[in-house]
Amino acid sequence: xxxxxxxxxxxxxxxxxxxxxxxxxxxxxxxxxxxxxxxxxxxxxxxxxxxxxxxxxxxxxxxxxxxxxxxxxxxxxxxxxxxxxxxxxxxxxxxxxxxxxxxxxxxxxxxxxxxxxxxxxxxxxxxxxxxxxxxxxxxxxxxxxxxxx
Length: 149
Description:
This protein is an alpha/beta fold. It has helices at 2-11, 20-27, 31-34, 50-57, 95-100, 115-123, 136-145, and strands at 38-41, 66-71, 79-82, 104-105, 126-127. It has a five-stranded mixed sheet, with helices on both faces. α4 links the parallel β1 and β2.
């Protein structure tokens, strides 16, 4: 992993996926906090992110209000998935395919700093994601500016 992080820094690649077991071990401590809340995963590929899958599988159990997901795309339109327009079936065998059928394209590239993503951020109560570490300070500053947990 050490080699991969140095290589990622060199080529400016922040694309790392958090393991489901790590997500489960951490987020299980906050289950009560999620009830009735809108969760925003603003740096996550809707069909690949384990954060998205974790919330999707527990949508009804956690009594979530909504899940919003956006992903950056450096060569075109970013991706957008929202439980407001999707069919959430936590019993689905292939969660990625369930989500994929409702993924839409953003107008912009999906950068968390874009107006489009900030408008979605304003609708969220809690942000859960694996942010781009090269932009970590800017990312945290934005969360503080908009008073997001």
